[in-house]
Design a protein that fits this description.
The protein has one helix at 15-26, and strands at residues 2-5, 32-35, 45-48, 60-63. It has one domain (2-63): Pyruvoyl-Dependent Histidine Decarboxylase, Chain B. With 64 residues, it is an alpha/beta fold. The chain has a two-stranded parallel ribbon. The longest helix is centred in the N-terminal third of the chain and has 12 residues, at 15-26. Helices cover 19% and strands 25% of the residues. It is globular.
């Protein structure tokens, strides 16, 4: 299994505004976030991910 990591920071007047800015900076502000377990399966490969240009509004992004 390949697990892609994305990251960004955000600033705002409220925590949710900063969170929204960070999502935008990571390129995933238009995706539905789905939280998953934080357990990474054995033999998984971790790589720095980049949002693909074919992501459409409402596509799913899973979060650990």
């Amino acid at each position: 299994m390949i697990i892609e990591l994305f990251g960004a920071t955000g600033n705002g007047n409220t925590e949710i505004a900063a969170f929204d800015e960070a999502l935008h900076g990571a390129g995933i502000s238009n995706l539905n976030l789905i939280y998953l377990s934080s357990v990474i399966p054995p033999k998984s490969k971790i790589k720095i991910g980049k949002i693909k240009n074919n992501s459409k509004h409402g596509d799913r992004a899973t979060l650990l």
